[in-house]
Specification:
25% strand; four-stranded antiparallel beta sheet; Jelly Rolls; 6 helices; Arc Repressor Mutant, subunit A; alpha+beta; single chain
Length: 228
Amino acid sequence: MLKLNNELFSLIKRYGECKNFKYNEIFHLNNEGNFLYAFERGVAFLKQTDVTGKVLLSKICKKGSIYVETIDDFSQFQINYQLFFKQNTTLYQVSINKLRENIDNDYLNTLILKYTHNEIRKRELTLRDYTFYGKKGTILSNLVRLANSFGKIFKNGTILIDVKLTHEDLSQLCGMSRERITKTISKLKSDNILDYDKKRKKFIILDLESIKDQINCEECPLNFCNIC
């Protein structure tokens, strides 16, 4: 868990309601209030869907993750958010109003501001990668973020991204077509940079340094360069 989120996580857990979800369950987030979520265990994909049916995978939540739900005042933003549970998951949910009733508001606002700043910074870096390095750069930078979030390093230097991801999931994460994802992955596989375990549905990075070189990786702090 990121250090700056420790206090906020503890408060959500202390005052929140514990909820358990099973693998493959879907939870539609509340559209009438502001809630905060702290993930105790499991893995969940946070997806957003617009009125045309387009889907974006905006966050992968795991143990220690926090999500702060905000409600827009503009009704034209018709976007629905759902949590898709990829493992049995335990989380805590609390309304912002309940926290304000129990915690000094200035202190709470500071914690939420820190969280929000961190999330904005992550999105700025994602936008920068797309602007500077195009669609391929977006895919490569997200592979780095996935490695930082779920990577298991083996003695030979390869990195298993230890979360199940289909090509469709990666396309939703990168905001591009599945065909583009498949084409790029095929090229990375032929260059001996990336592999994919079809049976386990997990990516394996064979040459992380090559990926970083192609996007001029600046070794950003992990609290910015992650997908959680």
